[in-house]
Amino acid sequence: MKTPAKVNLSLEVLGRREDGYHEVSSVMQAVALFDTVAVASDISFAGETAPAGSARQDSGSGFFAGIRCSNPSVPEDGANLAVRAAFLLRECVDAPVTGTVEIDLLKNIPVSAGLAGGSADAAAVLLALARLWDVRAALPQIAEIGGKLGVDVPFCVYACAAANPGITDGLGFTRAHAEGAGDILTRLRERPVESVLLVKPDIAVPTAEIYEAYDAFRKDASPVSGQCPAGFRNDLQPVTAARYPIVAEIFERMREICESSGSVLMSGSGPTVFACFQNRAVAEAAEARAREAFPEMFVLLTETL
Ligand code: ATP
After folding, report:
1. For 50, 186, 239, 261, which has the most beta carbons within 10 A of its beta carbon?
2. How far apart are alpha carbons 302 and 305 in whole angstroms?
C-alpha cells in the first residue's frame, strides 16, 4: 500500500484534556509523498490449527508481528507504530488471533518531521490487516481504533484509504477538519491540486516535547498570533521555532523565497516548513531557490492529493 504524508494547513491547540491529549482544531491535507507498506499475514483464529512456518511467534501470546524498515533510524521492534497497529487490531478481533504478521516498510516520509509518517504506516497496517483478516469494520471503526495510537492516525486511515481505492473501496478522503484529539473528522471538499514545497532541516523534533513546551509557554505568555495569515496558522510554530532556531530561519527564508506567491507555515510540531502554490511554474522556481538556500536539507516539491 502507498500511504501518504500530511501537512497541517492550520493547527490550533485549544487546551489540554484530563486524559493528557490536547484538543486541536486543524485542517489536514494529504500530500503525494508516500511510504510503501507491504503486509503479509499467516494467522489462524481460535480453534483453527496453527499455521505452518510460524516459528517466530511471541511465546506468550502465540502472535508475532515483525518489521523490516528501509530507514535505520526507525525502530524495527514493538516500538514501531506499524507493529503496534498490528497488535492493536488483534486486540479488537473477537476470536484470539495466533500466527505471524510480517511488515516491510519502505520509508520515503522523513521521520519526526511533523508529516505523520509513523501514523501513515500504522494506518496502512490497520487497513491491510482488516482486509487480510476479513475484519468486518467500516472505515470509521478502523479510524476509531487508530485513534488509540495517536492523534494523526484517524485522518491517515482515510487518506490511506483514498490512496488505495482498490483495497478499501475508495471511501477515503484527503482533506479534513480534525477536532477533539484528532478523532472527530469532517471531510472537506478537495480543492484543485496545489503544489506543496517541503523543507526539513536535519533535526528530529519529538512531538511530545513540543506539546509539553506549549503548555508551559501558554501559562507564561499569551499565544503569539498574527504571524501567519488568518486560517493559515500553527499554534505550535512559535514553540518549535524558539527551541529550534533553524525552524525560524527556514520560515523567514521561505517567506522571502515565496514572496507573495505562496503561503508558508510549519507542519504539525515541526520541523518541516512548507509552502503552498497554486501555480506549478512558480512553485518550481521557488523549489530551485530553496535547494540553493538549503543545500544540506530535505527539499521536495510535491502536491496535494
Ligand atoms: P506527527 O506529524 O504525527 O507528529 P512526525 O512526522 O513528527 O509525526 P513520525 O515520523 O511519525 O513523526 O514519528 C516519530 C517517532 O516515532 C520517532 O521517534 C520514530 O522512531 C517513531 N516511530 C515509530 N514507528 C515509526 C514509523 N513507522 N515511521 C516513523 N517513525 C516511527
Report:
1. 239
2. 9
